[in-house]
Amino acid sequence: MLRLISYLYWAVIVVTCPFFFLGALLTWAVTAPFDRRKVVLHLYSSAWAVFYVRLNPLWRLRTSGRRRLPWRGGAVLVANHASLIDILVLFDLFRPYKWVSKSEIFAVPFVGWNMRLNGYVPLVRGSGESVRRMMARCGELLDRGVPVLIFPEGRRSADGRLQRFKDGAFELSVRHGVPVYPIAVHGTGRALPKHGLVLRSQVDARVEVLEPLLPSDYPDTAALREAAHHKIEAALTAAGDEFSGS
Protein backbone atom coordinates (compact mmCIF):
# COMPACT_ATOMS: atom_id res chain seq x y z
CA MET A 1 0.00 0.00 0.00
CA LEU A 2 2.82 2.44 0.86
CA ARG A 3 4.43 1.78 -2.51
CA LEU A 4 1.16 2.51 -4.33
CA ILE A 5 0.58 5.72 -2.35
CA SER A 6 4.17 6.75 -3.07
CA TYR A 7 3.81 6.24 -6.83
CA LEU A 8 0.53 8.17 -6.91
CA TYR A 9 1.98 10.97 -4.81
CA TRP A 10 5.06 11.52 -6.97
CA ALA A 11 2.94 11.21 -10.12
CA VAL A 12 0.69 14.04 -8.91
CA ILE A 13 3.77 16.19 -8.28
CA VAL A 14 5.15 15.53 -11.75
CA VAL A 15 1.82 16.30 -13.41
CA THR A 16 1.03 19.47 -11.43
CA CYS A 17 4.47 21.13 -11.31
CA PRO A 18 4.20 22.63 -14.83
CA PHE A 19 0.88 24.26 -13.93
CA PHE A 20 2.23 25.66 -10.66
CA PHE A 21 5.24 26.99 -12.54
CA LEU A 22 2.99 28.77 -15.02
CA GLY A 23 1.29 30.35 -12.01
CA ALA A 24 4.69 31.43 -10.71
CA LEU A 25 5.53 33.05 -14.06
CA LEU A 26 2.24 34.92 -14.03
CA THR A 27 2.77 36.02 -10.41
CA TRP A 28 6.27 37.25 -11.24
CA ALA A 29 5.08 39.14 -14.33
CA VAL A 30 2.24 40.88 -12.50
CA THR A 31 4.19 41.81 -9.35
CA ALA A 32 7.65 42.61 -10.79
CA PRO A 33 6.95 46.36 -11.25
CA PHE A 34 6.22 46.94 -7.55
CA ASP A 35 7.71 43.97 -5.66
CA ARG A 36 11.48 44.18 -6.05
CA ARG A 37 12.04 41.75 -3.15
CA LYS A 38 9.71 39.22 -4.85
CA VAL A 39 7.80 38.70 -1.62
CA VAL A 40 4.54 37.82 -3.39
CA LEU A 41 6.32 35.30 -5.62
CA HIS A 42 7.96 33.71 -2.60
CA LEU A 43 4.62 33.43 -0.79
CA TYR A 44 3.12 31.85 -3.91
CA SER A 45 6.04 29.39 -3.95
CA SER A 46 5.43 28.70 -0.27
CA ALA A 47 1.80 27.81 -0.98
CA TRP A 48 2.93 25.59 -3.87
CA ALA A 49 5.34 23.67 -1.63
CA VAL A 50 3.00 23.36 1.34
CA PHE A 51 0.22 22.11 -0.96
CA TYR A 52 2.32 18.99 -1.58
CA VAL A 53 2.83 18.44 2.13
CA ARG A 54 -0.88 18.82 2.92
CA LEU A 55 -1.77 16.61 -0.04
CA ASN A 56 0.13 13.64 1.36
CA PRO A 57 -2.20 11.51 3.52
CA LEU A 58 0.77 10.19 5.52
CA TRP A 59 2.17 13.55 6.54
CA ARG A 60 1.04 16.01 9.17
CA LEU A 61 2.70 19.43 9.47
CA ARG A 62 2.59 22.03 12.24
CA THR A 63 4.58 25.25 12.55
CA SER A 64 5.12 27.17 15.78
CA GLY A 65 6.87 30.47 16.51
CA ARG A 66 6.22 31.87 13.03
CA ARG A 67 5.40 35.30 14.49
CA ARG A 68 8.98 35.65 15.67
CA LEU A 69 10.20 35.99 12.09
CA PRO A 70 10.38 39.45 10.53
CA TRP A 71 8.50 40.56 7.43
CA ARG A 72 11.20 43.13 6.73
CA GLY A 73 14.82 43.50 7.78
CA GLY A 74 17.91 41.39 7.40
CA ALA A 75 18.09 38.11 9.29
CA VAL A 76 19.84 34.76 8.99
CA LEU A 77 17.56 31.75 9.43
CA VAL A 78 19.32 28.47 10.23
CA ALA A 79 17.67 25.05 10.36
CA ASN A 80 18.74 21.44 10.83
CA HIS A 81 18.56 19.20 7.77
CA ALA A 82 17.53 15.53 7.91
CA SER A 83 15.40 14.91 4.81
CA LEU A 84 14.58 15.99 1.28
CA ILE A 85 11.23 17.26 2.52
CA ASP A 86 12.82 19.81 4.86
CA ILE A 87 12.62 22.33 2.04
CA LEU A 88 8.90 21.71 1.60
CA VAL A 89 8.03 22.01 5.29
CA LEU A 90 10.17 25.12 5.82
CA PHE A 91 8.09 26.93 3.23
CA ASP A 92 5.32 26.71 5.84
CA LEU A 93 7.05 29.60 7.59
CA PHE A 94 5.25 31.87 5.09
CA ARG A 95 7.73 34.66 5.63
CA PRO A 96 9.93 36.31 2.98
CA TYR A 97 13.47 34.94 2.69
CA LYS A 98 15.90 33.67 0.09
CA TRP A 99 17.06 30.07 0.18
CA VAL A 100 20.69 29.04 -0.05
CA SER A 101 20.52 25.67 -1.81
CA LYS A 102 22.83 23.32 -3.64
CA SER A 103 23.15 24.20 -7.31
CA GLU A 104 21.87 20.83 -8.56
CA ILE A 105 18.34 21.67 -7.44
CA PHE A 106 18.33 24.76 -9.67
CA ALA A 107 18.60 22.44 -12.68
CA VAL A 108 15.43 20.49 -11.81
CA PRO A 109 12.69 21.37 -14.31
CA PHE A 110 9.97 23.70 -13.02
CA VAL A 111 11.09 23.50 -9.36
CA GLY A 112 14.64 24.70 -10.09
CA TRP A 113 13.38 27.23 -12.63
CA ASN A 114 11.09 28.67 -9.99
CA MET A 115 14.02 28.92 -7.57
CA ARG A 116 15.92 30.98 -10.14
CA LEU A 117 12.84 33.11 -10.74
CA ASN A 118 12.69 33.83 -7.00
CA GLY A 119 16.34 34.86 -6.87
CA TYR A 120 17.36 32.12 -4.44
CA VAL A 121 21.09 31.57 -3.98
CA PRO A 122 22.86 28.55 -5.52
CA LEU A 123 25.87 26.90 -3.92
CA VAL A 124 28.24 24.37 -5.46
CA ARG A 125 29.25 22.04 -2.66
CA GLY A 126 33.02 21.85 -2.19
CA SER A 127 33.77 24.90 -4.34
CA GLY A 128 35.55 27.72 -2.55
CA GLU A 129 34.72 30.16 -5.34
CA SER A 130 31.02 29.25 -5.14
CA VAL A 131 31.08 29.78 -1.37
CA ARG A 132 32.58 33.24 -1.86
CA ARG A 133 29.90 34.12 -4.43
CA MET A 134 27.20 32.82 -2.10
CA MET A 135 28.51 34.86 0.83
CA ALA A 136 28.69 37.99 -1.32
CA ARG A 137 25.17 37.50 -2.64
CA CYS A 138 23.77 36.82 0.83
CA GLY A 139 25.53 39.93 2.10
CA GLU A 140 23.85 42.02 -0.60
CA LEU A 141 20.46 40.57 0.33
CA LEU A 142 20.95 41.22 4.05
CA ASP A 143 22.01 44.81 3.38
CA ARG A 144 18.77 45.25 1.41
CA GLY A 145 16.75 43.92 4.34
CA VAL A 146 16.07 40.48 2.87
CA PRO A 147 16.45 37.43 5.19
CA VAL A 148 18.35 34.36 4.01
CA LEU A 149 17.80 30.74 5.06
CA ILE A 150 20.78 28.39 5.33
CA PHE A 151 21.29 24.78 6.40
CA PRO A 152 24.44 25.29 8.53
CA GLU A 153 25.24 21.56 8.62
CA GLY A 154 25.99 21.83 4.91
CA ARG A 155 24.29 18.57 3.98
CA ARG A 156 21.63 16.22 5.24
CA SER A 157 22.35 14.27 8.39
CA ALA A 158 22.86 10.57 7.65
CA ASP A 159 21.45 9.34 10.96
CA GLY A 160 19.21 12.19 12.12
CA ARG A 161 21.68 13.49 14.68
CA LEU A 162 22.58 17.13 14.50
CA GLN A 163 25.97 17.64 12.83
CA ARG A 164 28.56 20.32 13.46
CA PHE A 165 27.61 23.72 12.03
CA LYS A 166 29.75 25.50 9.47
CA ASP A 167 30.70 29.13 10.05
CA GLY A 168 29.20 30.82 6.97
CA ALA A 169 25.72 31.68 8.27
CA PHE A 170 27.15 33.09 11.49
CA GLU A 171 29.85 35.09 9.75
CA LEU A 172 27.06 36.74 7.76
CA SER A 173 25.19 37.55 10.95
CA VAL A 174 28.24 39.12 12.61
CA ARG A 175 29.45 40.94 9.52
CA HIS A 176 26.07 42.51 8.73
CA GLY A 177 24.79 42.91 12.29
CA VAL A 178 21.60 40.91 11.80
CA PRO A 179 19.99 38.36 14.15
CA VAL A 180 20.14 34.59 13.78
CA TYR A 181 16.86 32.71 14.02
CA PRO A 182 17.45 29.04 14.93
CA ILE A 183 14.74 26.74 13.53
CA ALA A 184 14.25 23.14 14.68
CA VAL A 185 12.71 20.84 12.07
CA HIS A 186 11.19 17.80 13.75
CA GLY A 187 10.17 14.44 12.33
CA THR A 188 11.10 14.83 8.66
CA GLY A 189 13.89 12.26 8.76
CA ARG A 190 11.25 9.57 9.06
CA ALA A 191 9.37 10.65 5.93
CA LEU A 192 11.66 9.06 3.35
CA PRO A 193 14.32 6.35 3.43
CA LYS A 194 17.94 7.38 3.03
CA HIS A 195 17.88 6.01 -0.52
CA GLY A 196 14.72 5.87 -2.60
CA LEU A 197 11.39 7.65 -2.72
CA VAL A 198 8.98 5.12 -1.23
CA LEU A 199 7.19 6.89 1.60
CA ARG A 200 7.27 5.59 5.14
CA SER A 201 4.38 5.34 7.56
CA GLN A 202 2.64 8.29 9.24
CA VAL A 203 4.94 11.26 9.86
CA ASP A 204 4.28 14.13 12.24
CA ALA A 205 6.52 16.96 11.00
CA ARG A 206 6.92 20.13 12.99
CA VAL A 207 8.76 23.39 12.31
CA GLU A 208 9.70 25.28 15.47
CA VAL A 209 11.07 28.83 15.29
CA LEU A 210 13.19 29.49 18.37
CA GLU A 211 14.13 32.75 20.06
CA PRO A 212 16.53 34.86 17.94
CA LEU A 213 20.18 35.33 18.78
CA LEU A 214 21.79 38.77 18.48
CA PRO A 215 25.43 38.76 17.31
CA SER A 216 26.21 41.62 19.69
CA ASP A 217 25.52 39.26 22.61
CA TYR A 218 28.42 36.94 21.66
CA PRO A 219 32.16 37.56 21.61
CA ASP A 220 32.78 36.01 18.20
CA THR A 221 31.40 33.93 15.34
CA ALA A 222 32.26 30.64 17.02
CA ALA A 223 30.29 31.50 20.15
CA LEU A 224 27.26 32.54 18.09
CA ARG A 225 27.50 29.35 16.03
CA GLU A 226 27.64 27.15 19.13
CA ALA A 227 24.72 29.01 20.73
CA ALA A 228 22.56 28.33 17.67
CA HIS A 229 23.66 24.70 17.60
CA HIS A 230 22.81 24.31 21.29
CA LYS A 231 19.35 25.83 20.85
CA ILE A 232 18.41 23.55 17.96
CA GLU A 233 19.95 20.49 19.60
CA ALA A 234 18.05 21.17 22.83
CA ALA A 235 14.77 21.55 20.92
CA LEU A 236 15.33 18.29 19.02
CA THR A 237 16.27 16.43 22.21
CA ALA A 238 13.24 17.77 24.07
CA ALA A 239 11.02 16.45 21.30
CA GLY A 240 12.73 13.04 21.27
CA ASP A 241 13.88 13.40 17.66
CA GLU A 242 16.97 11.23 17.84
CA PHE A 243 16.46 8.29 15.49
CA SER A 244 18.19 6.00 13.05
CA GLY A 245 18.00 7.22 9.46
CA SER A 246 18.87 3.86 7.93
UniProtKB/TrEMBL annotation:
Coiled coil: none annotated. Keywords: Acyltransferase, Membrane, Transferase, Transmembrane, Transmembrane helix. This is 1-acyl-sn-glycerol-3-phosphate acyltransferase. The chain crosses the membrane at residues 7-29, 41-59, 71-94. Residues 75-188 form the Phospholipid/glycerol acyltransferase domain. It comes from Catenuloplanes atrovinosus. InterPro entries: Plipid/glycerol_acylTrfase (IPR002123). The lineage of its organism: Bacteria, Bacillati, Actinomycetota, Actinomycetes, Micromonosporales. GO terms for molecular function: 1-acylglycerol-3-phosphate O-acyltransferase activity. Its EC number is 2.3.1.51. It comes from the Bacteria.
